[in-house]
Amino acid sequence: MRDKRTGPAAAWSATTATAGAVWAFGGPGFPFGDDERAARMGAVLTGLDPGPAGLGVAAFGTTAALLAVLLRRQGGPGGQRNGVAGERTGDATGRRLRLLGAAFAAALLFLVPDGRLLLAVGEVLTGHPERVEAAALTQAWCTAGALLWAAVAHRGRRRTDAVPAWERPVTLLAAALPLAYAVPRTLWAAGLTFGLDRTATLMVSTSEGRARELAFAAAATGGGLLTLGLTQRWGTRLPSWVPLLGDRAVPRRLATVPATAVAVLLTGAGLTMWRVLAAAVLGGGAGATAFDTANWAAWAGNLVWLPWGATLGLAAWAYHRRRNALG
Predict the structure, then answer these.
(1) What is the enclosing helix (H) or strand (E) of 281?
(2) Which of 118, 140, 165, 223 is the least buried, fewest Cβ under 10 Å from its Cβ?
């Protein structure tokens, strides 16, 4: 039995290999050049030469595409193998290959995205897609690749329907953490500015700035409320008072896919923020980075992204397991 889940990952990998080859031979759109803003936003892959870096991207994509082909031929868990010994050997090979796929996913998620990706999402939500940076599009592409390869790697795991004992407290924490991000922005939108330098204060004091902060606060608060549904009955079956759809089961992916996507975005951006903060503190140059002490409230709330994303991801995973147990 062939594993059809490798198809999207193979297509993504082949496209990435092609893009790397284009960059290596002088083509346009190389996203990892020298950029002061990239460094300020916590980019790891910056200041690279397009030639060698493009060849590296091409090699990565080609290797990933070949891995997808091998996994597709090897099949799903168990595959089609003769005899107990052959089955054990095939299972061991499949686990090693999927472990490599998991490493690809981790590299794409932890090395490529920076704070610009989450900012791009915010620009789209506030009606300004024209402000999205080109680098953020590349990061979105790589994040999608990380999710595809994570799905391939997860395919080989043994299924378990046991609901973790920590599901409820972790989910409640994931629902509460967005308030640390939303409350300051709500106060700024109301005109109670604090912890901002003069430039930031002027930005949030305009009508557009207040609407922007209020939209961010509303999105965070709404996300927290929806997170509660991962442990509530209305998260698995809609209340009877909902028009037309009342008392119908909530499609599992309707809850897990958005939650997982948001968790990945928050975790990637959060890792960037903490990495840059640590480098600034250790290097004694916080004033030269986005972590200026005179503007502490502008970035302090962003430090919640990492724990928020991590707990949201765990909550979505626990919800998936519970839905498996319910059948």
Answers:
(1) helix 252-283
(2) 165
Residue 58 amino acid letter: A
Nearest residue to 139 via CA among 111, 177, 162: 111
3-state helix, strand, coil in the chain (%, to 5): 75, 0, 25
Could you give the C-alpha distances from 215 to 127, 197, 211, 263, 317, in angstroms and in order?
10, 21, 6, 19, 28
Q: Is the dihedral of CA 296, 301, 305, 308 positive or negative?
A: positive
Pairwise CA distance, residues 315 & 170, whole Å: 6
Q: What is the pTM of this model?
A: 0.81
List the helix and strand counts (H, then E) for the chain: 13, 0
Question: Which of 261-283 are b and which e, b meaning 16 or more Cβ less than 10 Å from the residue's Cβ?
Answer: ebbbbbbbbbbbbbebbeebeee
Which 8-state DSSP code applies to residue 43? -
Other beta carbons within 10 Å of 69: 13
Phi, psi of 237 (to 5 degrees): -145, 125
CA distance 52 to 45: 13
Q: What are the DSSP E strand ranges found in 56-117? A: none
Tens of pLDDT, residues 248-271: 888 888 889 899 989 998 998 888
